[in-house]
Amino acid sequence: MPFGESVVSTPSHCPFCNTRLRVPDLFPLFSLIWLRARCRYCKQPVSWRYFVVELITGILFVLTGLNADSLLQLGANVVLVSSLIAILYIDLDHYIIPDELSLTPAAVGLGVDLYRLTFLHTLPPQIPVPWFGGGIQVPVPGSVLGLVVGSGVLLFVGWVGAKMFHKESMGGGDVKLAGTVGTYFGLSWHLLTFFLVSIILGAAVGITLIALKRKSGRDYMPFGPMLVVGAIVVLLWGDVVTPMVVNMYSIN
Ligand SMILES: [Zn+2]
């Protein structure tokens, strides 16, 4: 994606000899071990990163499956987790988050919520509108609220950062990604925990890199990977982590 290649129309191929990979070359984890991390056709070394990504994806799929309460939720979570892993690695290398990777799960998050509201008759949150007709309650889908608040928080953080440091501190990709995660968590304590975990992780990684002299305080550090880890932590262990956060701030 960052090199402008399609992930669909040119099927998996060796980046060195361009040979199209066949079924025995495409088994996750096993093909790479069997071929000792070399292309079957031109013998060029294949990065072990494929192995790591496949392993992480597999582990996260299993954990997602254990957590999902319905087949619908499982499908939606698998789309989110797959996109998040790709975003993590692309943002680390290229400092960009491709729109396809954040907008696809956003569409799924909105779609699943609207499906539930329409066919499963779950009730949407009621938002008070005080200045309209002496005060009324307006139903708004949770995914829409999460989208607006999720992206809004990062827009605000980016605006404050730009004012303080006189340069762009939050990319448009980060804003969209936070909105995407918002469609899954809705306007909930999970959404707050997602932000707190991402920010605490970002601060910890930043301070560590500066202490190890790997980066200076002026260097750019992508925030997308922090959002990815925050989202996965809350998606998989939110029922444990979120109550801890809420109790810590006594905001129950
Ligand atoms: Zn090759």
Kindly list the characteristics that best describe this protein.
2 strands, single chain, two-stranded antiparallel ribbon, binds zinc ion, mainly alpha, 252 residues, globular
Polypeptide structure, described:
This protein is mainly α and 252 residues long. It has one domain (72-248). The protein is built from eight helices and two strands; from the N terminus they run ααααββαααα. It has a two-stranded antiparallel ribbon with strand order 1-2. The longest helix is centred in the C-terminal third of the chain and has 25 residues, at 224-248. 26% of the residues are buried. The mean pLDDT is 89. The protein binds zinc ion.
Present the secondary structure layout.
Layout: H1 30-34, H2 49-67, H3 71-94, H4 99-119, E1 126-129, E2 136-139, H5 142-165, H6 172-185, H7 189-211, H8 224-248
Antiparallel strand pairs: 1-2
The structure holds zinc ion.
Zinc ion binds at residues 14, 16-17, 19, 39, 41-42, 44.
Short description:
The chain has 252 residues and is mainly alpha-helical. Helices cover 62% and strands 3% of the residues.
